[in-house]
Amino acid sequence: MRITFLLLFVLGVLQAGISSVNITPPLKDNSFMGIKILDQKQFSFQHIKGIKFSEISDIAYHPKSKKLYMVSDEGKLFTFKVSFSTKIDSLTPLDAVKLTKKSGKKWQRDSEGMTLDKKGRLFISFEGKAKVGHFNSKGQMVKKYRLPKQLRDPKNYRSRNKSLEALTWHYKYGLLTATEWPLEEDNKKRQTIYALSGKKWHFKAEPEAKSSVVAMEVMDDGNLLVLERSYTGMLSPFVVTLKKVYLKKCKRGWCQTKVLAKMNSHKGWDVDNFEGLAKVGRHRYVMISDDNDNFFQKTLLIYFEVLD
Length: 308
Description:
By secondary structure, this protein is mostly beta strands. Helix content is 5%, strand content 51%.
């Protein structure tokens, strides 16, 4: 009985925390297409500050405080202290809170996109009844923002859980959001980026089936790094694409794009459900996966550099 208890205790310790992992096929100098993999981590926390750690849907980084925020689509906000160099030097959990409305009522789920503005204010977007709000460090909504007309009516979305998936802050255009799948009135491959001011940019989704926008981040040159995900079933390839969308190179309603990396599970990539993206330095980013609160999936944090 003691041996069994000891084994269970050791397994529990091993399963808690952060460990190194490798999701890539053999690479030369850790480079692949237009990116270089700098570090790879797996999270296996059960709880942080008494709150279950799971289903991370997006991340945001504050360079002055060196805090990495992670939002769960279950309405939870986690804060980590992090240090980046050519590797992830340290990563320590600091806090965890549940998101609440102005009234104090808790959000149960649907928190999908997250970003910080130049003042370090935290913004989160939601699916279901689509919305974007400013939240304080305690997880309470401070202000709700008015969406462009097309995004206000739930009937315009292809489904309730295919709405405001991605959110970022642009120094020129302010808050930008994107739906996971195009609106009902649009072609299934015509993706759109919306500024809350009403300005729009269109780009073509990747050719893989059900390729959807799950995250985006502003790059050093003012263009966007977009994360797309394609999954159609266990026997089909899981494809994660990082692409650059040129906001200043748009003609006849379409913006130019460039694929920086296409990670395919049938080509040696052990990719999971990547949903979050954050800029952490010049040309450097992290992306994170959602474990869907599923024993067979993982929360992975990949640190990479864009080479071109």
